[in-house]
Amino acid sequence: MKKISNIGITINFDKNLYSNGLQQNVVILNDLLNQFDEFRSFFLYEGKIIDSDLIDKNLCFPYKELLNDSAIQFDLIIMMGFTINEEIISLAKKKQPKIKFVLLQCGNQFVENMSFALSENDISYSPLSNSLLIDQFWTLPHYEKNLSFMKTYFKNDNVVLVPYIWDSLFIDYQINNSIYKSKDKNFSLINNRSILIMEPNLFFSKNCILPLFIIEAFEQKFPNLIDTCNVLCASKLAKNDYFIKLILQMDIYMKRKNFLKIQNRTIFIDAIHKFGSILISHQQDNALNYLYLEALYLNIPLLHNSEIISKYGYYYPDNDIDSAVKQLRKILKSHSNNLNEYKENCDLVLNKYSSRNLKNKLDYKNLLKNLLDS
Fold this sequence. Notes:
Radius of gyration: 22 Å
Structural class: alpha/beta
Mean pLDDT: 93
Strand order of the largest sheet: 3-2-1-4-5-6-7
Order of helices and strands: EHEEEHEHEHEHEHEHHEHEHEEHHH
Number of strands: 13
Strand content: 15-25%
């Protein structure tokens, strides 16, 4: 009988599944691994199990019971949703010498180290103190330029790029639990003259500053063509004195009453329904994002500067506001007339990163087999 390897993927159930892409990435990877007969993948969780149709409670195992004699005998633990304490890793390896530990870094390691070291944060962060206990480090393809940094930081040359994967299950779930359930709705036509800016505003790498100045430049050139500009995830910024002064001197604040609005974080379907269906994004060294793929899946115009997906959506390079203004004008003039062509193009990139794409599945399968056999 073929041996089935038990895999645990860490997840923090105290965080909402929609709090960030990481939570969703854990669920999608867990689903992918369970498609193979050779593996059985579990959520190795902390916190309280989320009551959600998207989580199979039969696949949930409490992290605090990892060292119990009655615990599942894991062959591999992928630290993704949280990092396990080094002491527990050491004890687990003594108890089960063949167990492997992987750290999957889904964020930009260099940006995180830099930001935590130079900024004051509401949450206390600490660097990993003993990376020698970890067998392999994984990171995503858009962080390839960080490979040498990560090898130096973790004191380990075994740093591997793994496929970036996505699935529509979360956005489909939102739709099926919204007023748009069972409706063939074209989301790009909802609030199609209003702007959404949904950057998390946690680090310099993904924030609302350049999108706001794109709107500022567009308004100066084409006044009153846009109804509203809605900035989500910006409640903290609204308390920042410099940010407020930056906004107060902008035409989109001074010349247009109730045009610029700060909104609370909202799931994507609700944000489109309430606030707008033109998504403007900006990133530095974070060129793949679930939000991009969700926007393309819904066929709504995505104005972005991700060089990796420059052939999809409406692309502007780097910080080029002039190019972004031209693309925004194109969106307003012709997006609704080219929906079929836009969808056909979007489907190409969605398939490329799909967790159901055979290449992505085989890449993970081979990676795991090589690691477990080593």
